[in-house]
Every structure is written in C-alpha cells, then in structure tokens.
Design a protein that fits this description.
mainly alpha; 11 helices
Length: about 300
C-alpha cells in the first residue's frame, strides 16, 4: 500500500468510525436525506469526472506539453529514441528522451486520476450502503425496543384488567343474596340441602361458590394474581367452606366428580392446597376446626 493510499485509508477510518457510532441514530431517522446527499455527491463526482475527461488533453498539455498517453505513442517514441541512438544523433535522442519522460508521466497521471475518480464514486456508494445498512439495523432494533415497550404496557393493562375482574368477582361473595351462605360458613352450619346434614342451600348455590374459587385457582396457577393476593382477598371463606363440617364440601366435590366425565374443580383443590400450605393459615385452620367442634358439641349437648 502506497503512502498516499495509506493516508486516505487512515482519513477514511478517522471520519467513518465516529460517523457510524454517533451518526447512526440521526441517519436512521433521515435515510431519505442520506440518500439525497449521497446521490448529490455521486452526481457531483460524475460531473467533475466528465469535465476532467473532456478536458484531458488540455490539462495534460498544460502540465506536460503532451497529451499522448496511449501505449502506441510511448512505443513509437521509444523506437525513435533507439533509432537516433543507433544513428548517433544525440540531439534527437535527447528530444526523444524528453518526449518519452513526458509521455510516461502524462500516462501515469492520467491512469492515477482515472483510478481516483472511479475510487471516489465507489467509496461514496460504499459509505452510503454502510451507513444505510447500519441505520436500518438501528431503526429495526429501535422498533423492536418500542414493540417490547408496547407489549410491556399491554401486559400491565392486562394485569390491571385482571385485578379489576378479580375485584368484580370478589364482590360476588358479598352480594346480598349470598349473605346467608357466608353466615352459614362462619357458623360452620350444614350447606347442602340434599346432604346427610340437611343444609339450606341447593347445588346451584354451592356450585356458584365452587366455580368462583376454581376460577381464582386458575388465575393463581397462570400467575395472573399472586397466591398472597388470593389468600388475602378470600382465603378465610375458601378454608371455611373446604373444612366445613368435617369436609362436607370435599365429599360434595367427590360425588360430583363421580357423576361427571370431566375432572371438576381441579384448580380449586390446587388453590386450597397452596393456601393451606401458607404458614399464616395454620392458626386459621385450627380456628375453623374449633368453631365447628363447638357447634357440634352445642348440638349434641
């Protein structure tokens, strides 16, 4: 690599690296402007090249007093030089030598200039391709990042909607027409009117509560709400219903499953097991069992 080409290489690296690092963001938002600038630079380079090519002979004659740059012209000059040397015509030989040096210099200058013109145009196009590619990749990554932010926001909105739905469903427990059911749970009273203990509630009443807790269990299983949230919202009623009267509801679920081809209330049972496993509910379960024991003793007494 010649010293001139090396300097051009260093100059190109010095300009292009900062441009790629700090200008990618700008070019990614202004690809059209980049294309216009590049096209203008190419047109300008082509225009200058056309002027140089059109005035090649004038320029070379101005510098070297000759425009003969073809190989045939140089060969002819060499032949004249050799002939004059053989004829011992030293004056003519000196003229031919001078002409030969000027022809070679003019040819070298022209070839270098032509190579430089082509190199400039190719370099401009290469820079454009490099910057455009980097800009498009940067833009793509930016869009992916924005898309990720949008998905994150959507997930947060979904979580909010789920919590709102949870609160809406949770309000179902406290509706006026469910008041008697809650009182029965708190007092450990019998529930199912067709069961052995002859409660006051139909299978429709019981199924409503079971379906609610089963839905909440699926929410916990899918990580839509935390176990702690579920326990805080309705853990007491879940445990009182499940442990009511020595497992009346547990037996009800078993009987319902026997009469169905589907595995019913699996999410509810899973939720109950997880809620029971919480250390904070150990006292709650003992309290429920104690209430039921006292109720049973009172009836027997």
């Amino acid at each position: 690599m010649s010293s001139v080409n090396f300097l051009f290489f260093i100059f190109g690296i010095t300009i292009s690296v900062p441009l790629l690092i700090f200008g990618t963001s700008y070019f990614s938002d202004n690809v059209t402007l980049l294309a216009v600038i590049t096209l203008s630079a190419v047109i300008l380079s082509v225009f200058i090249s056309i002027i140089i090519v059109s005035n090649r002979d004038k320029i070379l004659k101005k510098i070297y007093r000759t425009a003969k740059v073809d190989t045939d012209e140089i060969v002819t000059t060499v032949q004249h030089l050799v002939k004059n040397l053989l004829d011992k015509n030293y004056a003519k030989s000196l003229e031919c030598s001078d002409q030969l040096v000027r022809n070679i210099s003019a040819r070298y200058t022209w070839l270098t200039t032509r190579k430089w013109m082509i190199g400039v145009i190719v370099s401009i196009l290469a820079v454009f391709v490099g910057l455009a590619g980097s800009a498009l990749i940067f833009k793509q990554n930016s869009l992916l990042s924005e898309h990720g932010d949008i998905l994150s926001k959507q997930n947060k909105l979904i979580q909010i909607q789920i919590r709102e739905k949870l609160l809406e469903k949770n309000s179902f427990i406290y509706q006026e027409n469910n008041k008697n059911f809650l009182v029965a749970l708190d007092s450990c009273a019998p529930l199912y009117n067709r069961g052995k203990l002859k409660g006051k509630f139909t299978y429709i009443d019981i199924n409503k509560f079971l379906k609610f807790f089963d839905t909440m269990g699926s929410y916990v299983d899918e990580k839509l709400i935390s176990l702690e949230t579920a326990n805080k919202q309705f853990g007491w009623y879940l445990l009182t219903m499940y442990h009511n009267n020595n497992g009346e509801i547990q037996q009800y679920i078993k009987d319902t499953r026997k009469n169905s081809s589907k595995i019913l209330y699996s999410d509810l049972i899973s939720l109950v097991e997880e809620v029971i496993a919480l250390q904070s509910n150990k006292v709650t379960i003992d309290k429920i069992k104690d209430i039921c024991r006292k109720v049973k003793e009172k009836k027997n007494g």
